[in-house]
Design goal:
mainly beta; five-stranded antiparallel beta sheet; about 40% strand; globular
Length: about 80
C-alpha cells in the first residue's frame, strides 16, 4: 500500500510558527532535513527520521512534522546545505 507523505527525502522542514525568548526576542525557527521515512509494522503509524542542526538525528511522528513544519527550498535554509 502506498503512503501519501508530506515531505520527500532530502526536504528541509522549517517550523511554521515564530518562537520568542524570555525577553521577547525572536528566535530562529528550527530546521530539519528529512533523512528517512518509515511506517511502523505493528501500528501502521508513519514517522520521519530527521537530521538536526547539530548533526544529530530525531524521529518525529508524521503528524507533528506535517502540522507544525513546512517544506522550504534548500536555498532558503539557514542550515543546509552546510557546505555553502
Amino acid at each position: 500500500m502506498s503512503h501519501d507523505w508530506g515531505f520527500d527525502l532530502g526536504d528541509v522542514a522549517r517550523e511554521q510558527d515564530a518562537k520568542f525568548g524570555p525577553m521577547g526576542d525572536k528566535l530562529p525557527k528550527d530546521e530539519y532535513k528529512i533523512d528517512r521515512r518509515f511506517i511502523d509494522d505493528d501500528t501502521g503509524d508513519a514517522f520521519y527520521q530527521v537530521e538536526t542542526e547539530e548533526s544529530g538525528t530525531h524521529v518525529f511522528s508524521e503528524g507533528v512534522l506535517d502540522n507544525r513544519y513546512e517544506p522550504i527550498p534548500v536555498e532558503e535554509s539557514r542550515v543546509w546545505p552546510k557546505e555553502n
